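Objective 1b. Sequence-to-structure analysis of Kojibiose phosphorylase.
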Amino acid sequence: MGNLWQVNEESFSPNLKQIRSQETVFTIGNGYFCTRGTFEEGYPHETAATLLFGVFDSVPVSKEELANAPDWVGLQLFVNGERFRLDKGKLLAYTRSLNLQNGLLTRTVHWESPLGVRVRINSERFASLADEHLGMIRYSVTIDDSPKDLPVAISLRANFNAARGNYDVMHWETTDQGHSADLLWLQSETRSTHVTLVQSMSFNADTTAFQKEFVDGDIEPSIRLTGALNPQESVVAEKVVVMYTSRDNEDPRKAALIHHQQMLNTVAEETHSNAHNVFVFDYQIQKQDEAWARFWEQTDVVIEGDEKAQVGLRYNIYQLRINTADNDSRYSIAAKGMTGFGYRGHIFHDTEIFMLPFFTYELPHIARNLLLYRYHLLPAARKKAASNGYAGAQFPWESTLNGEETTPPSIVHPETGEVIPVLNGFIELHITSSIAHATWEYWRVSADDEFMRDYGAELLLSTALFWDSRAEKNGEKDEYIITDVIGPDEWHEHVNDNAHTNFMAKHNIRIALDVLKWLQQTAPSKAKALIEQLDLTDERLAHMRDVMEHLRFPQDPVTGLIEQFDGFFKLAKFDQEKYRGRKDSYQGILGVQEVQKYQLIKQADVLMLLTMMRDEFDYDTKKVNWDYYFPITDHDYGSSLTPALHAILGCELGHTEEAYRMFMKGTLVDLENLRGNTPEGVHAACAGAVWQAAIFGFAGLRITGDGYTAQPHWPDNWQRLSFQFKHKGEPVNIDLKRS
């Protein structure tokens, strides 16, 4: 049996796309920052990035993006004056592993320099979960042998690299730097948003034979250790970095330097060592182990009988944790988290529909913060609704810190290269009901009445008011319609009465009215204040109920088949057999306009509705719609969001092996770069969908009015499925074993 907590790389590939994909895979992080898995020594054309939670800077067209901070991991090694790098000399052996159990990234290299010195290098790196401001590297160099057994000159240079950008865009400018007897520091500021970042560094060797030198510089300040090693001798160095921003503290330089020096002093006192040359790695890795152990005690999902699924699921849970802050409601989880530049750090409905359920069931305090992020941005959502001529709150399709719409008006299509308009920010509306649904689900599972009273009710009623005003009365019939939208299937634009959009709008209004009734019973003064604030007159409430009851839902009353949108069934069928073995999406093959003529689906639309609202539809309805829509969905190159989500419905319908296949497409999407775009960052929403597939699909967990039930569905080889979740604040342990 292999190590079920490790992601391993057994050899080094010089293929640049593979290198960049692995940089994403081996990202370390703690929710405050994430750092891609680039090599300490650097590599040509690498995509080094450290992204900080909620630290943005302006960018043309897309308004703003997470700003790539000065690189803190740089550590160059020179052997007899020759630089060690994986594209130089001769690589004799190489391994790299990410320990998911404690977030430790380890790499071991056996290398021969061009002049014949053989060296073993071992690096260990982590972002502290116990201290979110801390990043650490332990780096050891051992001389195996040298020509004529002569001593080898060694130079280790630890630096901050301020010449890092988001591809070609530079966001930070050095404003100051300096050093004391122990610490080197760099102060930077984002060019447009004026966020200050201070990074402090200490760098020590385990021998006094190595000399230390501070080298100041605005672009690459560094600390250098120089000395000599005989064959079979080693040197171990530790690089300790502390980061603070002006979002954390009014004086981030003072905060960073005090924090850093106190840490060194504390460890020096406990280990009876010199504070000017103290080693802290062992002390801090113990704290790291303890912090991650607490996390995994709450969130681990044990699969027995399938090692690949076990490691993959743990990897996806790891990604969910490192990409969101533990206690910060000013920002949320981006589509790529903080692991790459894809989608620029913008927030989509991916968070609420795909990722938030994990936190709702496992870490409800983080789920609460993610919803508070939306609540804080209600003023901007109201402004967007009003600017479009509607009431209530309309959330933007993409958002960052101020809640304004940040969807770019156009992009270059990644497959066809054509410049295409992006209509999502204008007419993809279902994000508003997605946020409302996530709010309702959080309350249903957590029973956090205080949250619903103080925040959730206002959010639900504000979004319900938007749908009430957005729906139009159909003069020909006693019904309301919603026209000119994009549903979850983004390959079809300007559609009318998208089933998912309409049903979730009805649901949004229904739960808002239910919460208002609850609020009137439990907190009448709060209810009265909200009614006045939102102008919820009797006439308005009556109209909301009328819209809820009569909003069109295109479903055949006999067969139960739901039409994805008005006219979908009239679109041409598409012969997918002609494109067997393709490497592009159908939109990439056919083009943006042509694909809209066919019954081809980018991602689950009707089936996502049936999954999200699984208690609202019967078995026969789910079956007939699965049979119709599943075969015409592009599971391979459409959206990464929904293959794993399909597993939930597939399990319920008895398609367990198909569900497993979809589950593994999601589980391995980044570990094996299945879609070719992992270099842009992890598929964070897919990580959430993978967890949902395991818990709601294969374990069959359901929360009911009386409590909860579990009805397992077993893929081949799975023998046990065990996990914990929180229900109304109390931990619940589920341990399912195959009979």
